[in-house]
Amino acid sequence: MSIITNPQEVAELRAGGQRLAHILHVVEQAVIPGIRTDELNELAFKLVKEGGDTPSLLGYQPPFAKRPYPSVMCVSVNDEVVHGIPSENPIVLKAGDIVGFDLVIGHQGLLTDAAITVPVGEIDDTAKGLIKATRESLMAGISVAHGGARMGDIGYAIEECARRHGFSIVEELCGHAVGRAVHEEPEVPNFGSPGTGPELVPGMVLALEPMLNEGTKDVVLDSDGYTIRTKDGKRSAHFEHTILITEGDAEILTKRT
Predict the structure, then answer these.
(1) How far is the C-alpha of 192 from the C-alpha of 189, rounded, in Å?
(2) Architecture of 7-252 per CATH?
(3) 6: exposed, middle or buried (Cβ count in 10 Å: 0-12, 13-18, 19+)
(4) pLDDT of 18-50, one tens digit each?
């Protein structure tokens, strides 16, 4: 786990977070019915390279995977929860779909991680509610993240928000520390009990990322070795911010300003 308190490094984290937020915003604006997921992946790649930064997911191999990840950005459509591969068997987006984008970039050697879920054209009310609830669950987790709090406080806040909206939380996947590597310890579960788990320390850099499902919380791994889908085939949404823990309110590094 990285503890980042050096003012210069904190400034670089902020700069990287803003670059990442801008890229996701541009990608979101490009989402229209008929565009392919590989086109959106190429757009993200172009924007990362133009900024002189590193697409940190490309070639990254997590412990569970049998091969390095082959795309710049994870693009997950409808029942795909996370880790969809846009560069292989690209999907043509259609009106009514929802699509999630998850991107990690390295700026001056420091990494930030963020995700959004957006509509494709007009979507139904349930999909709108799912996206809204997932975004609010993320913000609920961030609202209790400060020095001296516990990891369980974050998970409890996220879980309670999701349940109030009537959606299920994916428990097999979680957030994580970040900063000098794509994934660092400790994990940040999206459920929990207040006052439990590791203490939050100023300088921690955490990626909070609730994933909410329309139906069951259960998920399955696709044959491609990366894509996680809902077990019942219903839709899922995913939002993520990288935050810096302080004595007071957490600083959202990947919030677009």
Answers:
(1) 7
(2) Alpha-Beta Complex (3.90)
(3) exposed
(4) 999 999 999 999 999 999 999 999 999 999 999
